[in-house]
Amino acid sequence: MAGTFRILSVIALAAALAGCGGRERPQADLAASRVTTIGVNSYLWRASLDTVSFMPLVQTDSAGGVIVTDWYVNPQTPSERMKLTVTILDQDLRADALRVAASRQTMANGQWVDAPVQAATVQKLENIILTRARDLRRSAVTG
Question: Which structural domain range is residue 55 located in?
Answer without folding.
Answer: 42-142
